[in-house]
């Protein structure tokens, strides 16, 4: 979820959280089945081996453990006991942590956009902004899922991790502004994906405690489940001799002390290995194991088990663009609570706060630390005409600037633009090379422009008027936002004149990337890897499009859903 503090918009979210004050501490569950991988035997046997204890892997493991012996391998550590993850107030510290064992592993895509991937039990649900909302009925139908089982699986997840947020004045104004400009009807508090404006769910409870996918492990059978932390899978193991197709029968993993271990599935036609390592981890592990495009694997010196040219293709990331809106009056601190689901393929959301600032630039790219950035001279006091006139004046010390206001953002459905993932080397700890090709497809760009125009209308609406300065034009707001170091993409002189150019130059991630092991390309509709026996992929890498406005609810649902389906097959 690149160093997230690299973008002041994300830094703003972080500083919002820091200003919330201390939250009540959440009591950590007593998981007797969870231990460090250094304590595991050199060789072990299970009915199911799940690689990746993230947003899908945790509910999947909990479900399968009811009737089978399950090993869940997580490369990161536990979220419990880590206040930076469990409570809102420590959010910034997790995102700023660039250490080798940080819960957020940073990377920059080949597009020049900073990003990150989770490295912790619970996956991205330990790092994100907490918004919870389901996929649309059409998405479920297109996926070929059983609607009744989908609903049952969502409810199972929601009983543990979903809450109704407390909506205050700034978010209420955003809601009312969306309705005023035609993003209707108003659907109230609602977890369903339906056109109009609504209040979505949150995985933060009323005390500010985060509830993650790791919490779903409390529904497991402790006698049947083993969770190993700091267990880095280096490759899958296959049987080839005398078989019409490769059979996945084990995994090789390394503990934090550097010792290798082997885990095998027990004999039996229903026993399997399941990859749930995410949209980056799952295609990366397949390639490291010899399943992927032949030429690429051979160029890396990896023996080819199966020539599968579709592994690593279809990589997408839903582009996000935003406008910063300074406020003449104090605003509450809030993360994303309200969403406008438009009929032209754009979602409108926002976050607000007081006394937040652009944080120091990322260690991921020192270039951002050296650059002078253009930030407005608008502080807590009423801005003057001179301050507005100097909105383009270079400023080097971001931390000195404090703002009061919020960001209204748009992100597009899909997207249609696709990229790919390739290995840089054979080290499973290193990030692969990823290109998302933001706005390669013209329709994605048109949707971004439509979303920005809707944001402009909301800013100019009567409902939102008390949170805007009347003498600040939309062009001034665009110029202010352009100055933030959001990415490594060069700016253009016409950024505030052309919304198309603004979309391209200010694009950011909202960490909804997906693809790499897509249904119909790498896996079938039962998520079995085509051309390989006893191997499935169950996570966001299988998605062709991102589900709903925010994918985490559906990824958790999918883990539960497939756990029940696999269990029933048994």
UniProtKB/TrEMBL annotation:
InterPro entries: FAD/NAD-bd_sf, GMC_Oxidoreductase-Related, GMC_OxRdtase, GMC_OxRdtase_N, GMC_OxRtase_C. Residues 1-25 form the signal peptide. It comes from Rhynchospora pubera. Its cofactor is FAD. FAD binds at residues 120, 233, 511-512, 540, 551-552. GO terms for molecular function: flavin adenine dinucleotide binding; oxidoreductase activity, acting on CH-OH group of donors. SUPFAM superfamilies: FAD-linked reductases, C-terminal domain (SSF54373), FAD/NAD(P)-binding domain (SSF51905). Keywords: Disulfide bond, FAD, Flavoprotein, Signal. The keyword Flavoprotein applies. This is Glucose-methanol-choline (GMC) oxidoreductase family protein. Pfam families: GMC_oxred_C, GMC_oxred_N. Belongs to the GMC oxidoreductase family. The keyword Signal applies. Residues 118-141, 278-292 form the Glucose-methanol-choline oxidoreductase N-terminal domain. Disulfide bonds join 448-503.
């Amino acid at each position: 979820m690149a160093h997230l503090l690299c973008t002041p918009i994300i830094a703003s979210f972080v500083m919002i959280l820091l200003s919330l004050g201390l939250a009540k501490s959440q009591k950590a569950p007593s998981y007797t089945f969870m231990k460090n991988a250094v304590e595991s035997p050199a060789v072990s046997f299970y009915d199911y081996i799940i690689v990746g204890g993230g947003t899908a892997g945790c509910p999947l493991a909990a479900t399968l453990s009811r009737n089978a012996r399950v090993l869940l391998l997580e490369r990161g550590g536990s979220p419990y006991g880590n206040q930076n993850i469990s409570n809102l107030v420590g959010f910034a510290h997790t995102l700023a942590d660039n250490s080798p064992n940080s819960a957020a592993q940073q990377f920059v895509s080949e597009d020049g956009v900073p990003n990150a991937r989770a490295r912790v039990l619970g996956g991205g649900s330990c790092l994100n902004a907490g918004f919870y909302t389901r996929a649309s009925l059409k998405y479920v139908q297109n996926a070929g899922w059983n609607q009744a089982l989908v609903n049952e699986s969502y409810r199972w997840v929601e009983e543990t991790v979903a809450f109704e947020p407390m909506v205050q004045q700034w978010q209420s104004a955003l809601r009312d502004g969306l309705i005023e400009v035609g993003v209707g009807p108003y659907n109230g508090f609602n977890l369903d994906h339906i056109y109009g404006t609504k209040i979505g769910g949150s995985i933060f409870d009323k005390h500010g405690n985060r509830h993650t996918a790791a919490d779903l492990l409390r529904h497991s059978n402790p006698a049947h489940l083993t969770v190993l932390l700091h267990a880095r899978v280096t490759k899958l193991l296959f049987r080839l001799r005398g078989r019409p197709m490769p059979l996945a029968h084990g995994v090789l993993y390394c503990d934090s002390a550097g010792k290798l271990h082997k885990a095998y599935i027990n004999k039996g036609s229903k026993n399997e290995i399941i990859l749930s390592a995410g949209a980056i981890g799952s295609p990366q592990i397949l390639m490291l194991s010899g399943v992927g495009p032949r030429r690429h694997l051979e160029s890396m010196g990896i023996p080819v088990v199966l020539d599968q040219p579709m592994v690593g293709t279809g990589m997408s990331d839903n582009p996000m663009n935003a406008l910063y809106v300074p406020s003449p009056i104090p605003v509450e601190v809030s993360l994303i609570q309200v969403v406008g689901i438009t009929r032209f393929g754009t979602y409108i959301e926002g976050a607000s706060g007081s006394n937040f600032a652009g944080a120091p630039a990322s260690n991921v790219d020192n270039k951002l630390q050296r650059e002078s950035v253009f930030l407005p001279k608008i502080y807590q006091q009423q801005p003057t005409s001179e301050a507005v006139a100097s909105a383009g004046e270079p400023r080097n010390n971001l931390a000195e600037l404090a703002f009061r206001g919020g960001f209204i953002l748009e992100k597009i459905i899909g997207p249609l633009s696709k990229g790919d993932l390739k290995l840089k080397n054979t080290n499973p700890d290193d990030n692969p090379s990823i290109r998302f090709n933001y706005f390669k497809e013209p329709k994605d760009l048109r949707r971004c422009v439509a979303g920005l125009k809707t944001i402009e209308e909301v800013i100019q609406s009567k409902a939102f008027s008390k949170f805007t300065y009347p003498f600040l034009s939309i062009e001034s707001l665009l110029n202010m936002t352009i100055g933030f170091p959001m990415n490594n993409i060069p700016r253009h002189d016409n950024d505030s004149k052309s919304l198309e150019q603004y979309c391209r130059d200010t694009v950011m991630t909202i960490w909804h990337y997906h693809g790499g092991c897509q249904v119909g390309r790498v896996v079938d509709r039962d998520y079995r890897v085509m051309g390989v026996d006893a191997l499935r992929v169950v996570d966001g890498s299988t998605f062709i499009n991102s589900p709903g406005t925010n994918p985490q609810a559906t990824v958790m649902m999918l883990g539960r859903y497939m756990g029940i389906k696999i269990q029933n097959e048994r």
